[in-house]
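Obj: model holo form, ligand = 6-O-phosphono-beta-D-fructofuranose.
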Amino acid sequence: MMKKEIERIGVFTSGGDAPGMNAAIRAVVRTGLYHGKEIHGIRRGYYGMIEGDIEKMGPRSVSNIIQRGGTILKTARSQAFFTREGRQKAYRSVTTHAIDGLVAIGGDGTFRGAVEFFEEFGVPVVGVPATIDNDLYGTDFTIGFDTAVDTALQSVDKIRDTAQSHDRIFLIEVMGRQAGFIGLAVGVSGGAEHILIPETKSDLDAICEEVQSWALKQKGSRIIIVSEGDELGGAAEIGKKIAERTGIDYRVCVLGHTQRGGAPTARDRILASLLGSAAVEALLDGEANVMVGEVNSKVVRTPLRDTWEKKKAIDKRLLQLCEILSR
Ligand code: F6P
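Output (holo structure tokens):
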């Protein structure tokens, strides 16, 4: 590991926002200041890095934000950064502000950009995992996942009242374009009858058969949780297919972006505080191109590339459990 004294750290959030990002920014700023370093906030992720939208932060810049959802630094998905020219401009801004280390708070898209930037220009970057999807290898949980699951669960509980009163089937769509972690957690904690996620092949025939047997059994409420990225389609599409085959009435609720906002849970605030601080310490230790994460209650550093190249497995036992417990 090459040691290089870091004096000025740039921090930014990028990609989809996640509850707890603010708590992570706060931890980066205050840990950096604690170690006598200068911290600069880069607004709107890589877009702001290219534009030079960068400002020095002090301890009061992060007052009263630990409880707030979203990100005070704002976020964006920059296409320009994925061009050599864009990254060149970003590098110019970073050197203009004499930033010699970066903390990138986000998900796999953010980290892919960070790796390219590090490989081309050698600016050390440490990643902090923040995405509601929880789909990063190298950490048991990502910042924002716990809050998103709780938010979705509150809606599921409410829908359950109506589903039960009307003896109706509800298909509830949760976020997760490529990953079913939210779907699985919400399905198990919400007592769903079926959970459809991208990691497993969904069997429409079996679902239709079950739905019809429910009707015969006069079972009360029926909740089917669908991850938006399921290979059979979204909740609306799947509901239509089930109705075409069974003639059963159904309703759909897409929870959408409600899952991204809101005050972070205590768990997310703690994780964000821990990992934001650990990211600064990693940079000061001379680390580069790694993500800090928490695995089995220990803070670990994982090469950034592994965080998306290695796949974090879903816990398949939970799917089976859901089937057993919802009979
Ligand atoms: O943050 C991850 C995620 O919530 C995905 O599950 C979802 O598909 C995507 O972001 C949508 O984000 P946006 O609407 O910002 O493009």
